[in-house]
Write a structure and sequence with these properties.
With 298 residues, this protein is of the alpha+beta class. It folds into three domains: 2-90, Multidrug-efflux Transporter Regulator, Chain: A, Domain 2; 94-128; 138-297, Regulatory factor, effector binding domain (Multidrug-efflux Transporter 1 Regulator Bmrr, Chain A), CATH 3.20.80.10. It contains nine helices and eleven strands. The strands form two sheets. An eight-stranded antiparallel β-sheet has the order 4-9-11-10-6-7-5-8. A hairpin with a 6-residue loop joins strand 2 (51-52) and strand 3. The longest helix is centred in the middle third of the chain and has 35 residues, at 93-127. Mean pLDDT is 88; it is low at 5-15.
Length: 298
């Protein structure tokens, strides 16, 4: 009985301590958040005061809110956006931990991409903007006219690794119903594709039977509508790259190398740049040639 009485008394003391009202200044000091931050988190629904004086407008917080406030402060130290903080706070236990883990995995992926970009920029800056990149051998080749099945999309650079193989797979499946694939698939960039510019990009698969292809395209409309067009004959300036160089931003060095070579050769770029995939991507290793970076020239 004595133990039960002591436990009950401890619970009452704990409840009383948690219910203690603190001014915004006192709560800020104990929670390690500034009054300005507390006002912001109130507006965003993350941490509302327990009471607001109707006359003075003074804000009061309960001592029991300190743990939540400190959690908000720690999450913000991870540069977590307020919307994501709210998602973590509204979950409990393992789910909250899982949401934090998902957020941090995205951060690490972004940092890895930025690390790669830094390495690319350091190499570019050390060589100078006009110096030829000796890693790439550029040549010109004449290409015949081709009937192609195409699928276009506005896309950012980080979406390309998923979209390109999926789009080419869909187009190759359609081409098999139209006399078969007659050449290497390629992707045309009709405008810049980066982390800030979304193209569009156009996936293309050469096909044998133009009439069958047009009939197939008419039967299969929808959001991923396949179109048919004739890619004209012409001359390409191109360089071959290995699988490890295809990732963004490494591939930018190849495009720039071709552009410099074209200028030095006295040629003129006459159309949008492209990537031609001539090898089995899945079977290729990191150092195996898989792709040509090319520009139409005249």
């Amino acid at each position: 009985m004595v133990d039960e009485a002591l436990t009950s008394a401890d619970d009452e003391l704990s409840a009383t301590a948690d219910d203690e009202l603190l001014t915004i200044g006192a709560f800020a000091a104990r929670s390690r958040l500034s009054p300005k931050a507390l006002r912001l988190y109130d507006r965003r629904g993350l941490l509302a005061p327990a009471r607001v004086d109707e006359v003075t407008g003074y804000r009061y917080y309960r001592a029991g809110q300190i743990e939540r406030a400190r959690l908000v402060a720690l999450l913000r130290q991870l540069d977590m956006p307020l919307a994501e903080v709210a998602r973590v706070l509204e979950a409990e236990g393992p789910e909250a931990a899982a949401r934090l883990a998902t957020y941090w995995a995205d951060v690490e992926a972004r940092i890895a991409g930025q690390r790669t970009l830094v390495a690319y920029l350091r190499d570019r800056l050390s060589r100078g903007s006009s110096e030829m990149d000796e890693r790439f051998t550029v040549e010109t080749v004449e290409v015949p006219a081709q009937v192609v099945l195409t699928e276009s999309r506005h896309t950012l650079a980080d979406e390309l690794p998923a979209w390109i193989p999926a789009a080419l797979d869909r187009l190759e499946g359609a081409a098999r119903e139209c006399g078969g694939v007659t050449g290497a698939p390629f992707v045309v960039y009709h405008a810049e594709v980066s982390m800030e510019s979304d193209g569009p990009a156009e996936a293309c698969v050469p096909v044998a039977d133009e009439r069958a292809a047009r009939e197939w395209a008419e039967r299969h409309g929808g959001p991923r509508a396949v179109r048919v067009r004739v890619e004209p004959a012409g001359r390409l300036a191109r360089t071959r790259i290995v699988k490890a160089q295809v990732a963004h931003p490494q591939i930018l060095a190849a495009f720039e190398a071709v552009e410099r070579w074209v200028a030095a050769a006295g040629l003129e770029i006459s159309g949008p740049c492209r990537e031609v995939y001539f090898a089995d991507w899945a079977a290729a290793g990191p150092e195996d040639p898989v792709c040509e970076v090319a520009f139409p020239v005249r």
